[in-house]
Write a structure and sequence with these properties.
Largest sheet: 6 strands, mixed
Number of helices: 12
Number of strands: 10
Strand order of the largest sheet: 6-7-8-3-9-10
């Protein structure tokens, strides 16, 4: 039996200021599986994701990548073979879209012909015209186009694992829905191992094979969307489903919720 592509074993993380970000979290992501991490701000979901490319290190516990202990892997080499995209893309503003996509292949020493061919391929794959959009700078692209470039960059070196940190969070609803459809189509074709961070439970249900719900640094439950809905094992998870069923809050409710979140 093959080991999980990504595995955290009883992982805890305490920041330098003493804040406990993760507490005894265990998670396994199978090869080719898409797992979404859901939770409010400060729940630990981004910290957990960043353990898998060594952008942060656990205080205790163990992280494994394809069965290997992460602490024994060179972090630079690990990041170059792990796709990564974040909210608003994180593109280098003084580089064209094409050069942004080429970043990791260039670092890996690919020759120019190979880089050019792969850049054209992945830009086309994410629905962008290389001749039109490849020569533009991030500031000349729409939000949805920047996210497509970020996804193309994450896929450029054909990594087995892709980490996505709120990649669709800043987009308008129509653009988000379009990118959701394209992501699902891409994943059906490519079957990458994907770990996705989102605060949007509907997004997680749409895109993920399984969903892990975090709250206060604890992984409360990880299950299929159907099982999570039918058999929630914590009141917090029940509250999430109830909030989804209730629909978006009114402006007054949303403002109060935002204020309460800031105080918490």
């Amino acid at each position: 039996m093959r080991p999980p592509a990504l595995e955290a074993i009883a992982v805890s993380k305490r920041h330098a200021d003493g804040t406990l970000a993760l507490s005894g979290v265990s998670l396994a992501v199978a090869e080719g599986e898409t797992v979404a991490l859901v939770g409010e701000s400060g729940s630990g979901k981004t910290t957990l994701l960043r353990l898998f490319n060594r952008m942060t290190e656990p205080t205790s516990g163990e992280v494994r990548i394809a069965g290997e202990r992460a602490e024994g892997l060179d972090p630079i080499a690990l990041r170059r073979r792990t796709g990564y995209a974040q909210q608003e893309g994180g593109l280098l503003p003084h580089w064209t879209a094409r050069r942004n996509v080429e970043l990791v292949p260039r670092l890996l020493g690919w020759d120019e012909a190979r880089r050019t061919a792969r850049t054209r391929e992945v830009l086309t794959l994410v629905g962008l015209d290389p001749a039109v959009h490849g020569v533009r700078y991030p500031g000349e692209l729409s939000g949805g186009q920047r996210q497509r470039v970020a996804l193309a960059r994450a896929l450029a070196a054909d990594p087995p694992v892709v980490l996505l940190d709120e990649p669709f969070g800043a987009l308008d609803p129509l653009t988000k829905a379009e990118l959701h459809r394209e992501f699902k189509d891409l994943q059906q074709r490519l079957r990458k191992t994907v770990l996705l961070v989102t605060h949007d439970l509907n997004e997680a249900v749409l895109l993920a094979d399984r969903i892990g719900v975090l709250n206060g640094g604890l992984l409360l439950q990880i299950d299929t969307p159907e099982a999570l809905r039918a058999r929630p094992r914590h009141p917090y998870i029940q509250a999430l489903w109830q909030a989804v069923a209730a629909g978006p809050p009114s402006p007054g409710r949303e403002g109060r919720a935002a204020g309460e979140g800031e105080r918490g």
